[in-house]
Structures are given as structure tokens and as C-alpha cells.
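TA notes, week 10

Several of you asked for a full example with nothing omitted. So below is the full record: C-alpha cells for the whole chain, then the designed sequence directly under it. When grading your own attempts, check the secondary structure regions first.
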């Protein structure tokens, strides 16, 4: 591990707030990040929406017909709530401004921890993560959610789906829909996947609650997860 490496993590809402806020996990995650900050690492952490997003989307849909754009906006604001939660628990270490726009101007040199959120409709926070990874010249890009691997088919539909240790972007994009739909379960959304492929980025998909596994990634040790390569 390079002491000065920059790590960008998309922290899925499914592990921040699957039904209720996961306080015990967030305590451990905070300790994990602070340990690596002390060793010189720099982090950009992008919060997903989780149950907050789904609850608002489902409630609105039960009351009236809503568009995908409206669903996305509800999701975006849910990610911002979660991002402010992260910014608050890292208050003494993080940039005080949430990057709710991946191009928002902040002092990139003053801080070594930045918190991001959703930006606008048309994609998930995966896309914002890729844009921030480009901006901050990330050494490692990690999609950390409830999913441990990319599988060769939808694991929720096919319990016999096989986990993949690595896959190219071209092959990955054949596994998922080419169009974004709010709430879709792809490990990396199609808009983000297209951009990451174009930028020739390497992205690691892992289960975010396994902090020992995350540490192995940061220390360039063997880990459980899927590497998506150019």
C-alpha cells in the first residue's frame, strides 16, 4: 500500500441503511477510515440511498403516478441525507462541504477525506463515483454494497449464479441492461459502466460490510470480490 494513495468508495445505501441505520457498522467503518487516514491515505466516500430512497419512492408511487425522473430525485435526496450523516460522523476530518455535484469546487488539497452524494437523475451514485475517481485521480475505486461479487447472472433470480473474480467491462456490460432504471440491482449501473470503460478504469466490487476484506484491498493483499478491468 502506498501511504499517499487515494481511495474512492461508493458506500451502498444497502449497507448504510438497509432498513434502519446501521450504527454498529458505521462505528467500525469510521474507525477503519481513520486508521488509514493516519497512515496518509486520502478517501472520497460516496453515499448511496438505501431504504430511505426506496421508502420515499414507494410511498409516492402509492399515492400517484410518478416518473422515473421523480424517483431519481427522491433517491438523490436520500443519498444526500446519508452523505450528511457520514460527513457528521467524520466532522473533525472531512471536508465540510458534501460533494453533491462531482464538479463542485472545494479545496482538494486542504482535506484528505471527502463525502459525496447523488447528483441528478439518470444514473446511480456509481456514476458520480466514477466522475469523482477521475477528478481525484484515484488509485483504487471500490463499489462496496451488499453484493460480494459480480455474478454471471442475476443472483437474486438465479441462486446457482457463479461469482466472478474478474471480468472485462465489455463482458460486464453484456450482463446488464444498457439503460438505467431507478432501483435497478446492477453492481455497477450501465451509465457508470460505460464511462468507466471509456476511461479504462479498474473497479473492484465487494461486500462493504467485510472491513477485513476492504483492508486487504487497500494493502494489496488477496481479497474476495470482482475486479472489472478495461
Amino acid at each position: 500500500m502506498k501511504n499517499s494513495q487515494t481511495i474512492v468508495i461508493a458506500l451502498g445505501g444497502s449497507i448504510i441503511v438497509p432498513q434502519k441505520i446501521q450504527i454498529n457498522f458505521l462505528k467500525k467503518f469510521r474507525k477503519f477510515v481513520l486508521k488509514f487516514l493516519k497512515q496518509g491515505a486520502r478517501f472520497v466516500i460516496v453515499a448511496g440511498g438505501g431504504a430511505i430512497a426506496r421508502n420515499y419512492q414507494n410511498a409516492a408511487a402509492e399515492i400517484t403516478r410518478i416518473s422515473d425522473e421523480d424517483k431519481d430525485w427522491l433517491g438523490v435526496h436520500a443519498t444526500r441525507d446519508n452523505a450528511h450523516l457520514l460527513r457528521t460522523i467524520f466532522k473533525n476530518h472531512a471536508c465540510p462541504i458534501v460533494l453533491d455535484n462531482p464538479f463542485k469546487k472545494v479545496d482538494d488539497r486542504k482535506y484528505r477525506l471527502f463525502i459525496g452524494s447523488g447528483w441528478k437523475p439518470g444514473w446511480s451514485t456509481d456514476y458520480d463515483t466514477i466522475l469523482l475517481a477521475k477528478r481525484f485521480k484515484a488509485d483504487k475505486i471500490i463499489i462496496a454494497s451488499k453484493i460480494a461479487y459480480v455474478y454471471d447472472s442475476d443472483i437474486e433470480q438465479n441462486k446457482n449464479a457463479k461469482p466472478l473474480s474478474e471480468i472485462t467491462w465489455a463482458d460486464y456490460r453484456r450482463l446488464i441492461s444498457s439503460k438505467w432504471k431507478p432501483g435497478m440491482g446492477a453492481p455497477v449501473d450501465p451509465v457508470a459502466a460505460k464511462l468507466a470503460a471509456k476511461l479504462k478504469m479498474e473497479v473492484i466490487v465487494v461486500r462493504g460490510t467485510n472491513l477485513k476484506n476492504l483492508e486487504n484491498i487497500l494493502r494489496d493483499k488477496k481479497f474476495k470480490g470482482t475486479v472489472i478491468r478495461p
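Strands lie at 6-11, 42-47, 113-116, 140-145, 150-151, 163-164, 166-168, 203-207, 226-229. Use that as a sanity check on your answer.
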